[in-house]
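tool_call: predict_structure(chain=1)
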Amino acid sequence: MGFRIRSDYRLQGDQPQAVEKLVANLQEGHRFQTLLGATGTGKTFTMANVVERVQRPTLVIAHNKTLAAQL
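tool_result:
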């Protein structure tokens, strides 16, 4: 049983392209990447989609419980 997103939301705007690039880079062996975005642009949701696609162990660090609860 792997990580699965349960959400009514769908990727939109630049998110699908970001997921594709991040996943492709991970598959090519690039272990460290940065996703930049303004507050409220869906970075957490975007990364959740990356984790769902690659199904690899992932460490998520959040500075508050509100962000941690999003995952």
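agent: The CA atoms of residues 48 and 71 lie 7 Å apart. Proceeding to next step.
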